[in-house]
Amino acid sequence: CIIDTGVDYNNPAITNYQTGFDFVNNDSDVMDDNGHGTSVAGVVSKIAPGSLLYIAKVIDANGTGYESTILEGLQWCIDNNVDVISFSIGSGSYDGFCDSNIVAELANSAVSQGVFVVAATGNDGNSSLKSPSCASNVTRVASANKQDEFSNFSSGGEMIDVLAPGENVVV
Prior knowledge:
Elements: E1 2-4, E2 17-22, H1 36-47, E3 53-57, H2 67-79, E4 84-87, E5 91-94, H3 102-112, E6 116-120, E7 129-131, E8 139-144, E9 162-165
Parallel strand pairs: 1-3, 1-4, 2-3, 4-6, 6-8, 8-9
Antiparallel strand pairs: 5-7
């Protein structure tokens, strides 16, 4: 389940879209009007072509979202019994775990229910984490460039779990 800006389900690179809900406009049309979610879905479609994409659109065309819609999207993913939840979004700035943050708390709850939750650490280029990547049970991912070096914009420092390609990725 991808929690992001939606997906362009007409994009030929997206071969495995299953269903979704738009928590920004409160309808079932998750068409991406930002592009970020489609990029994330394109990567997932390439690396896991047999997966089924569930999409929770929680971020608007301007890249703005609210904790309330993110919580709704996260709960929707949990309620749909997905195996994996992906956050390539985040907010706040935390120097350590943030388990008292309401989004981090629900992400940890999903993990305790057997869901693998992965979250980007952020794009501020410092050692802090964004929520929900600061949740203690979430797998934290930072960006690497083509030389397998930490991208200069990526965040997370010592607390990252996975360093993965994230700079100039073409789908």
